[in-house]
């Protein structure tokens, strides 16, 4: 009200005096819809018209009010009618409400549209109105909240608790808009929202890995300034789906860019038994590389430039002795983790070697006791190998044959 111009304030006051003398004037739904339809002819700003629509729509349907105080003056559920009649009235009310929304896409708050979409899907509104709501929501998805984005799945064919396919459609539509290319901040907000959404729905045992990966990949890699939220979502999914195959675990870990993990997330991943060993080693190596670059920057400040620090800009401030001590302790811990993982890998290689030796144990025992082995040729014939039980005379004869070549004696 404070931002209204004098002419708009006068029009709004006249509009209220004409249309809403008291709250009882909108008890009749038909009168309410007709009144809302006449709003567009008052030449008011779209944002003001939208605020009037959302206010009185929340009066009719408390589900649209959100966290606002619920002081409904007329509720469809309170009318003395059957459940089917109430259901049909809600459906008619939402379809009519979508039809009279201002054409400006950003005039209605995104959270109100998400609540409207939730009720619309619940009462099975026509696809045309659902598509219009999704189009409006996708244009301002960066303004949505996680609570309103958790729309339940009302489809009989879906087994998940929340409508993940709906969020995937919204994100894809958002990324296909031309305005997204000019607004990197909006893309980063949506990426953060999607990571929080994935962490919430990851606990659903019916959510398959294909849907999870599709939603995570709906945003480009540059949309995430950090992968901590994505790592948290993947870790939650692995915890809730303990029977996941090794290949699926690897595919999920491929989504994480180890270079974009914070130090806390890297340390957590180093001790995470749910991650594949290869992914843990990659994260540790990436963290060690970042720490080495940090040390090179610190060395360049003291006047000793290392080859690795050539061409890199120095930090904007000098680090204190305490900070350097803490960093060196973290480096020592990371090196210990790398050594521990290397020792585990060597132990696994030794175990594999022992298994191979057991498989070859039969042949080794044959060599020790002197049993002759056989060698098969391509033509199917089999002959004795050089290794076997031979008499001393036979061995001497073989050695002489190998040293002296066969020469023809001269007849002269």
Automatic annotation (TrEMBL):
PROSITE patterns: NPH3. This is NPH3 domain-containing protein. Pfam families: NPH3. Belongs to the NPH3 family. Keywords: Coiled coil, Ubl conjugation pathway. The lineage of its organism: Eukaryota, Viridiplantae, Streptophyta, Embryophyta, Tracheophyta. GO terms for biological process: protein ubiquitination. Residues 18-290 form the NPH3 domain. The keyword Coiled coil applies. Residues 324-358 form a coiled coil.
């Amino acid at each position: 009200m404070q931002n209204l111009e004098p002419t708009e304030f006068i029009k709004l006051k006249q509009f209220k005096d004409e249309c809403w003398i008291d709250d009882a004037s909108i008890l009749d739904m038909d009168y309410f819809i007709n009144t809302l339809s006449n709003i567009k002819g008052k030449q008011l700003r779209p944002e003001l018209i939208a605020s009037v629509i959302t206010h009185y729509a929340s009066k009719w349907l408390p589900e649209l009010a959100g966290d606002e105080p619920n002081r409904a003056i007329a509720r469809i559920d309170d009318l003395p009618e059957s459940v089917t009649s109430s259901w049909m009235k809600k459906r008619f009310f939402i379809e009519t409400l979508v039809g009279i929304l201002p054409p400006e896409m950003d005039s209605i708050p995104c959270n109100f549209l998400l609540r409207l979409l939730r009720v619309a899907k619940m009462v099975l509104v026509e696809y045309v109105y659902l598509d219009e709501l999704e189009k409006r929501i996708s244009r301002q998805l960066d303004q949505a909240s996680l609570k309103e984005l958790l729309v339940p799945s009302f489809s009989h064919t879906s087994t998940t608790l929340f409508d993940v396919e709906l969020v995937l459609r919204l994100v894809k539509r958002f990324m296909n808009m031309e305005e997204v290319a000019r607004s990197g901040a909006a893309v980063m907000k949506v990426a953060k929202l999607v990571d929080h959404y994935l962490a919430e729905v990851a606990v659903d045992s019916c959510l398959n890995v294909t849907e999870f990966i599709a939603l995570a990949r709906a945003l480009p890699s540059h949309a995430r300034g950090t992968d901590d939220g994505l790592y948290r979502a993947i870790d939650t999914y692995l915890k809730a789906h303990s029977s996941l195959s090794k290949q699926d675990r690897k595919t999920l870990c491929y989504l994480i860019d180890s270079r974009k993990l914070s130090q806390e997330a890297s340390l957590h991943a180093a001790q995470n038994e749910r991650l594949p060993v290869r992914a843990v080693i990659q994260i540790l190596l990436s963290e060690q590389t970042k720490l080495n670059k940090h040390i090179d920057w610190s060395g360049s400040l003291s006047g000793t430039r290392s080859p690795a620090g050539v061409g890199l800009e120095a930090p904007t401030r000098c680090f204190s002795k305490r900070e350097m001590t803490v960093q060196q302790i973290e480096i020592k811990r990371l090196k210990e983790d790398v050594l521990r993982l290397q020792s585990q890998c060597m132990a696994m290689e030794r175990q594999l070697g022992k298994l191979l030796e057991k498989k070859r144990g039969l042949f080794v025992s044959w060599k020790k006791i002197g049993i002759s082995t056989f060698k098969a040729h391509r033509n199917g014939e089999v002959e004795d190998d050089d290794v076997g039980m031979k008499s001393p005379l036979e061995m001497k004869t073989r050695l002489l044959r190998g040293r002296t070549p066969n020469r023809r004696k001269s007849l002269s």
